[in-house]
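User: My advisor, Dr. K., asked me to get a structural model of this assembly before our group meeting. I'm new to this, so sorry if the format is off. These are the inputs:
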Amino acid sequence: MTAPRGPRRDAQREAAARRREAAARRRERTLESSRARREAGRQRRETNRERARMAREVSLVDLVDRLLDGGVVIHGDITLAVADVDLLYVGLRALVASVETMERELGVSMSARGPALESSAL
Amino acid sequence: MIYLYAITDAADEPDVPGLEGAPLHTIRDGRLAVVASEHDGLRLRAAEEELWAHETVVEALMEAGAVLPVRMGSVVENPDAVLALLRERGRDFSKALDEVRGAVEIAVRAAVDPEPAPRATSGPDAGPGAAYMLDRLDRKQRVEEAGARIHASLEPLARDHTPIASSHERMALRTAYLVDRELVDDFAETAERVGDELDGVTVACTGPWPPYSFAAGVN
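Assistant: The format is fine. Below is the predicted structure of the whole assembly, which you can bring to the meeting.
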């Protein structure tokens, strides 16, 4: 038994878990009505964790869509043609490819979460 | 180089950091302002952190007033180029800001569940090829009907809407809606209700986003 155990280690672990959860919440943009949010609060913790993961993934898909294809396009000779911008787009295309894969599975995953949604929406 | 985040006519100075923690600058021409950060050789990475860092700036601006997000990765050479941009396209920016003022973007997607519905109407005479085509037609119709019904429920609550491209065959609806802030909760509740009413269809909303999809056409 070399690993330190006890209240201090538990507290550290809990603090780290809280930080991770807070960071994940900042990246959630799934929109629910206030009534649905109240109901979701009563769901079991496990269900909430699964919902949070989906919420983050769906939010990321929508974020990439918007940042890549939305927004005012600044064009013409005032836009600097730097290599970094090209690299950004190459890299983002790779990210979008993984996002597309995720989305192909999204229908299945979202349906799998159906019972939780039904009870939360009453 | 000057990295651009958004165009706004809000008077407030944003107090969040830009990419790589760089301070934000507001470059003004009259009432219009471009929010930007200055970098000496910025190297953008296509990482989740980077995307959210950009997004955090635009969302902070959205809290302060009307905002037109600029497409991610837009850079200009110097502050003069920003001023030139505002002078050249300022009238269009002002008009577009008025169109999104007080509203946010909500992304809606609706997916039809994957299991193929057995066709009650396909008779015993239909060959396997015909049955396959009928199944495909049937599903396509189911997807289209679901999308139309969801849109019909949501459209009255939105100021504007624009479809988002999707090649996913089970995707019944993928649309961005521009929704008045005070109607966002009604909108979300309506989306939940119509999703519950439709068998085998899942409706999901994300937002509120800055009006990216309604700024893309501003020339």
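One thing worth pointing out at the meeting: Strands of chain B lie at 2-8, 24-29, 32-38, 67-69, 75-76, 103-112, 160-163, 171-180, 201-209.

User: Perfect, thanks a lot.
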